[in-house]
Amino acid sequence: GFGGFGSSRRSGGRRVNRGTNLRVKVKLSLHEVANGAEKKIKVTRYDTCSACGGSGAADSNSTSTCSTCRGSGHVTRVANTMLGQMQTTSVCPSCGGEGKTITKKCSSCYGEGIVQKEDIIKINIPAGVGKGMQMTVSGKGNAARRGGIHGDLLVVIDEEAHPELIREGNDLIYNLFISFPDAVLGAHVEVPAIDNNVKIKIE
After folding, report:
1. Dihedral through CA 124, CA 134, CA 143, CA 74, nearest 10?
2. pLDDT tens, residue by residue, 25-84
3. pTM of the full predicted structure?
4. Interior CA angle at 37 toward 198 and 47, to 5°?
5. CA atoms in the 13 A half-sphere facing the CB of 51
6. Is 37 helix (H, G, I), strand (E, B) or coil?
7. Distance CA 123, CA 154 (A)
8. How far apart are CA 157 and CA 23, in angstroms?
9. Phi and psi (nearest 5°) for 35?
10. What Rg value do the Cα atoms of the chain yield, rounded?
11. What CA–CA distance (Å, rounded) separates 58 from 56?
């Protein structure tokens, strides 16, 4: 998922690139699941090249209008068929739908418009999430080649096993072993909870 070569769509006749999504797994303790948490995650992703601003060109004079599509980003072909003339429109094969070509590439990104880097991304995780749930952080995925829209960061939730408590939905289970006299006569005991111990009475 680090390619940065995402999908695209047309907008005003030109193709708009979208970077690929990134997926990371975050482990949470039972305390963090119950109360929510703020996590800082280190990810390796493609970001916009700062040297060329994502254009992929060495400077503003290093691009030219595509001679095939004349800057429109697409080409139209007319074919004669039995039913008459059929007109088809497709992405320009020369410029890939960008409407321009690079005459001199940026020396930092080699014309791609993106560079690989490490980022620290802060995520606020709400209380009550569960194992396998997925959160979407918009715009924190890979950047698109030569301009466009960033992909998303998909955060998959995982839970760390608690040494004493077992989670079952919104309930917590604790196995309490008591002596025979306590079972017969009753007792007051303390059992662990998420943040502190809880006193209970055994009848």
Report:
1. -140
2. 999 999 999 999 999 999 999 999 989 888 888 898 888 888 888 888 888 888 887 778
3. 0.70
4. 165
5. 14
6. strand
7. 11
8. 11
9. -110, -5
10. 29
11. 7
Rounded to whole angstroms, the Cα distance separating 57 from 59 reads: 5
Residue with tokens 């999504």: 21
Instruction: Round to whole Å and give the CA distance between 184 and 50.
Output: 74
The CA-atom distances, in angstroms, between 59 and each of 24, 49, 70, 108, 128 are 36, 13, 21, 12, 50
Each of the 203 residues of the chain gets a pLDDT tens digit; together they read 334 444 444 444 455 678 999 999 999 999 999 999 999 999 999 999 989 888 888 898 888 888 888 888 888 888 887 778 888 888 888 887 888 888 898 999 988 899 999 999 999 999 989 899 999 999 999 998 887 889 999 999 999 999 999 998 889 999 999 999 999 999 999 999 988 899 999 99
DSSP assignment of 68-120 equals TTTTSSEEEEEEEETTEEEEEEEE-TTTTTSSEEESSB-TTTTTSSEEEEEEE
Residues 130 and 161: their CA atoms lie apart, in Å, by 12
Element (H, E) at 181: helix 180-185
Amino acid at 22: L
In 126-196, which ranges are E strands? 134-137, 153-159, 166-168, 171-173, 187-192
Under 8 Å CB-to-CB from 167, ≥6 apart: which residues? 30, 33, 159, 173
